[in-house]
Amino acid sequence: MTSNGSVRIAGGQGFYGDTPRSVEGLLAEGVDYLCLEALAELTLAILQKDRQKDEARGFTKDLPAYLAAALPEVAAGRTKIITNAGGINPTGAARVAIETAKRLGMHGLKIATVLGDDLMPRIDELAGSTALTHLDSGAAFTQFPQPALFAAAYLGARPIVGALDQGADIVITGRCADAALFLAPLVHEHGWAWDDWDRLAAGTLVGHLLECSGQTAGGNLSRNWWTIPHPWDLPYPIAEVDADGSAVITKPKASGGRVSFDTVRHQLLYEVHDPARYLSPDVVADFTSAAFHDESDDRVRITGVRGTPATDTYKALFAHHVGWAGETRVAFSWPEAREKAIAAAAIFAERVASSGLCVDEWCVELWGVDALGGPTVPATDAEPAEVVARVAWRCADQLTAGLVGREMVPLTLGAPPAGLTGMGRGAARPTELLGIWPTLVEKSLVDDHVVVALETS
Amino acid sequence: MSRLRLHELCGYRAGDKGDISNVALFADDAEVYDVIVREVTAERVKEHFGTFVTGTVVRYEAANVLALNFVMYGALGGGGPRTLRSDSLGKALGGALVRLQIEVPDALADRRAPRPDVGWAEAILDRLP
């Protein structure tokens, strides 16, 4: 905590695969808590595939690199780490954290693990107790394509606060609401009550602004993006949060990037549905109630955030197998590039059909024409200089998905459209497709299973 | 009245949750915000995206940041880990939204998006061995 009583928290990671180099700048600036958010929706699917290969895995593999960068500051008592890098195996992640600390000669660090988000062992029991209806489509759980590959609830800040109250230096969770990683140290330091809805909402809003790392400091900006200073040295954001919930979003001074009203509002609505009712496990936050004041000098002050009581459910995500995908690409140049690309895709599809290989779904895109914009791209008579036909397909099994791609190979010399170049890519190895089933689970069915385990390195 | 692309007036960012894409549209100022509140309805956005969005579009307002938020169901070909689309998370849907043309009052008719200046980037690339 700083001399004026504000707590400094930083978002040092925004996704699995982000750069641990960011941590150095944040720690040099001085932060009380370094929060590392590693889990997008997709990430649990990736970790699930890891765990299928090896039961000891299932957490983000870059955790040791982050810890190695941050542990000297932790050991010196200057910062603490909170991360959801545990993925679907927080216990495995804690084991690696302890090994990393020992390897660096740091003994006596308290490492807490939050368990209880994993619903996999309890699916049948839960299905007997609650509906598990698909949150978006309203489909009944009887339609869920069993078996589940992972099932996890988004826990809130409470168990993390519990771990901090017990003196943890490092807290490792599995699935929890991203913003909860950041709300927890604020509750712990400021002693906010669990029914102090406005302050919980303020902390949740701050957490939401920090959870996607560089995206608050000028990353992915849509307006004037080319004016961001030194974008190759994009900083990750820091929040200074007062006991009353008001906060300043800023960044390390010795860095590029920018924190402004515009960069902050870009992140405010990122992956948000109703901004007046941002549902988190700990509070329903009203993002439209916040006042933003750009103090210039890369500081944006936030005041007046309002909240209302949390709901009695956690969001949960279940995943199921869907099939196998393959893809291939071929490039054509002017003249008639677009027409040649269409013809090549059609010839390929016909070759696959006549081969007897079964494809359940096709996706044909023309890169350079409308692959990314779809129907929003206006029709034009202008001829593109070059077009890449990108064809993807879904099959029931991995072998078939791989064989389909081979049918593109003969087109190298055997396709009517002249000018197929070597720019394309042959069929990549098939990838597994997963379906996501978002749902709600009553907190009363989850909370009794939430446990905080404490170990010392 | 004149017709302008939203790109001349607004910023944007797209995010994903399952098969849902949300695209936030950020007005450059309060004057523009009033216009987009009137012009950029959920129905128009749904029509603009055509077959790319199979479900409904819901619009939310965030006047405190001069923004509209469009939540588009069935927008990602089944969602990130399921879709065959190359833009599996719909990151490009923000840019796709600001292609939409709207009616603006004459006072805004001359608004234009700033043009990118990437001289600094070209200088870097020119220095590469």
**Whole-number mean pLDDT of chain A:** 94
C-alpha-based Rg of chain A, rounded: 25 Å
What summary fits the major beta sheet of chain A?
10 strands, mixed
CATH architecture of chain B: 2-Layer Sandwich
Q: Low-confidence segments of chain B, ≥5 residues, pLDDT <50?
A: none
Structural class designation of chain A: alpha+beta
Question: What is the highest CATH level, the class of chain B?
Answer: Alpha Beta
**Beta-strand content of chain A:** 25-35%
Oligomer: heterodimer
What does this structure look like?
The complex is a heterodimer of chains A (457) and B (129). With 457 residues, chain A is an alpha+beta fold. Chain A folds into two domains: 7-117 and 154-311, no CATH class; 321-436, Alpha-Beta Plaits (2-Layer Sandwich), CATH 3.30.70.100. Chain A has helices spanning 21-29, 41-53, 63-75, 90-103, 123-129, 158-165, 180-190, 197-210, 261-268, 337-355, 398-406, 411-414, and strands spanning 7-13, 33-36, 80-83, 110-115, 148-153, 170-172, 238-241, 247-250, 278-279, 284-286, 291-296, 299-303, 306-308, 313-333, 361-367, 386-395, 421-425, 431-442, 451-456. A ten-stranded mixed sheet of chain A has the order 11-12-8-7-1-2-3-6-4-19, with helices on both faces. In chain A, α1 (21-29) runs parallel beside α3 (63-75). The longest helix of chain A is centred in the last third of the chain and has 19 residues, at 337-355. Chain A is globular. The mean pLDDT of chain A is 94. Chain B is an alpha+beta fold and 129 residues long. Chain B has one domain (2-127): Gyrase A, domain 2, CATH 3.30.1360. Chain B is 25% helix and 28% strand. In chain B, strands 2-3-5-4 form a four-stranded antiparallel sheet. Chain B has a two-stranded antiparallel sheet with strand order 1-6. The radius of gyration of chain B is 17 Å and the shape is flat. The model of chain B has no long low-confidence stretch (mean pLDDT 97). The chains are: A alpha+beta (457), B alpha+beta (129). At the A-B interface, α2, α9, β14, β15 and β16 of A face β2, β3, β4, β5 and α3 of B.
